[in-house]
């Protein structure tokens, strides 16, 4: 079993255990955050390296805050951005099952993953189909706001947009007469994209058009989104945000030329700024939990998450300073209008699924693998520490969704499925040699993409399926792969 597969098996076991659900066997490595040379060690809130076999629950789950482990929350800023769009899963070559609208799907694709290997079997039934992106013109979020009738839509940098047009239906004089949905069921659409109507109908050259919103491509942990845009502070020269912790050895850094040190310093600075912004994201999340009457365990863990983000930001700012040879810290972070936007339980759940159940799960996997390939002991220890916290933060997200589903009922089920439509977009090309990046605790772009796809398939989707099956009380989750 590869190091990545073994680590992902342990991550899946830990998350299922946190939900109080039966965990699949296959964890043969120490928990995230442990020194790989000391398999007997354990980390707070993480499972041991043996398989967990917690009893399965039935019906509506009990208060998830009583589950094992304590949760604090962090964003690594590791920059995991993902490839392919899929509401329910990703295989090694492209998307698998999803929905084509807000209703229960009529056609599904089933993906079977054997153990923790990369093998996937996909079966699709039905007539030939076309991809959603072949049906319209791609739009940037700023383009959406310039379309008459869409000016007030909350377009987000974390979503993708298309304008799809169809002929005016027979017998109608204007597109207003086929509102609110002039597109119809689009029966030829492949089951590869979940989408919602963003705005419209709009009359363009005698056709009726809608702007549709699909996929989610912000998977860097917990971004601080305000009106659809991820905010971070600007970097500045200051020492107070640098943790007093061991950094890479001088000899390790001296082996780098000036250009490589500058590039690594820039990458670590961007990660630190993302961690810093996550403090604000979790502050808002705490307020949302309070607004919806969440149990004290979840609120306490969300509060602890903010402090954890501060600690992680300081650790990574220290790394950035080590590589830059000068102190690095954050400037002011704009928080105006941060509490605007939809605050209903469905919107909160969708954000938690995307940013926590997906983003933080992927960040934990990426950081753990980066720590295993890093050649400097101090740097590897920092990455293991953050990876362990990310695992607990992901568990907090999954337990929050579990609590919300128990409270909100079946109506939120669709929200969870649609929120899993993440687009794993290839990150920017690496400017450094892949072997050098691994030595310094950073996964090359191609490896990040492959790991993200494998993590979606072997961790995120199995956890989502187990959670929804547990709540379905015997009703299979046909909208998720096996």
TrEMBL record:
<dbReference type="InterPro" id="IPR012348">
    <property type="entry name" value="RNR-like"/>
</dbReference>
<dbReference type="InterPro" id="IPR009078">
    <property type="entry name" value="Ferritin-like_SF"/>
</dbReference>
<feature type="signal peptide">
    <location>
        <begin position="1"/>
        <end position="25"/>
    </location>
</feature>
<feature type="region of interest" description="Disordered">
    <location>
        <begin position="28"/>
        <end position="127"/>
    </location>
</feature>
<protein>
    <recommendedName>
        <fullName>Ferritin-like domain-containing protein</fullName>
    </recommendedName>
</protein>
<dbReference type="GO" id="GO:0016491">
    <property type="term" value="F:oxidoreductase activity"/>
</dbReference>
<feature type="compositionally biased region" description="Low complexity">
    <location>
        <begin position="34"/>
        <end position="127"/>
    </location>
</feature>
<keyword id="KW-0732">Signal</keyword>
């Amino acid at each position: 079993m590869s190091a990545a597969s073994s680590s992902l098996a342990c991550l899946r076991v830990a998350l299922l255990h946190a939900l109080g659900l039966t965990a699949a066997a296959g964890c043969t490595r120490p928990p995230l955050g442990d020194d790989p040379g000391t398999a007997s060690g354990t980390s707070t809130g993480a499972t041991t390296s043996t398989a967990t076999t917690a009893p399965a629950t039935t019906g509506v789950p009990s208060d998830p805050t009583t589950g094992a482990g304590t949760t604090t929350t962090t964003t690594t800023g590791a920059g995991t951005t993902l490839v392919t769009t899929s509401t329910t899963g990703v295989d090694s070559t492209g998307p698998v099952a999803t929905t084509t609208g807000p209703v229960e799907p009529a056609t599904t694709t089933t993906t079977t993953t054997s153990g923790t290997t990369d093998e996937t079997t996909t079966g699709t039934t039905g007539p030939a189909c076309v991809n959603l992106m072949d049906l319209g013109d791609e739009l940037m979020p700023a383009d959406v706001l310039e379309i008459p009738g869409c000016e007030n839509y909350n377009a987000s940098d974390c979503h993708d947009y298309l304008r799809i047009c169809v002929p005016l239906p027979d017998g109608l004089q204007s597109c207003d007469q086929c509102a609110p949905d002039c597109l119809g069921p689009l029966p030829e659409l492949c089951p590869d994209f979940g989408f919602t109507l963003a705005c419209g109908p709009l009359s363009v050259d005698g056709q009726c058009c809608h702007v549709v919103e699909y996929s989610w491509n912000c998977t860097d942990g917990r971004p601080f989104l305000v009106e659809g845009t991820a905010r971070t502070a600007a970097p500045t020269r200051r020492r107070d945000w640098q943790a007093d912790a061991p950094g890479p050895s001088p000899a390790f850094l001296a082996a780098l030329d000036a250009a490589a040190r500058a590039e690594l310093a820039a990458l670590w600075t961007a990660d630190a700024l993302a961690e810093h912004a996550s403090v604000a994201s979790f502050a808002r999340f705490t307020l949302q939990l309070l607004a919806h009457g969440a149990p004290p365990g979840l609120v306490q863990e969300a509060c602890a998450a903010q402090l954890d983000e501060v600690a992680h930001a300081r650790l990574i700012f220290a790394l950035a300073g080590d590589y830059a040879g000068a102190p690095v810290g954050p400037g002011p972070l704009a928080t105006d209008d941060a509490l605007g936007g939809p605050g209903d339980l469905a919107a909160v759940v969708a954000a938690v699924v995307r940013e926590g159940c997906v983003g933080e799960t992927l960040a934990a996997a990426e950081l753990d693998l980066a720590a295993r390939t890093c050649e400097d002991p101090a740097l590897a220890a920092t990455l293991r520490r953050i990876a362990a916290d990310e695992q607990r933060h992901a568990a907090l997200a999954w337990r929050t969704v579990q609590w919300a589903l128990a409270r909100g009922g079946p109506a939120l089920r669709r929200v969870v499925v649609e929120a899993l439509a993440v687009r794993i977009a290839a990150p920017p090309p690496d400017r450094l040699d892949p072997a050098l990046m691994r030595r310094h605790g950073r996964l090359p772009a191609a490896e990040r993409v492959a790991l993200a796809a494998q993590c979606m398939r072997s961790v995120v989707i199995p956890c989502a399926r187990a959670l929804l099956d547990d709540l379905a009380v015997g009703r299979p989750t046909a909208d998720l792969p096996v």
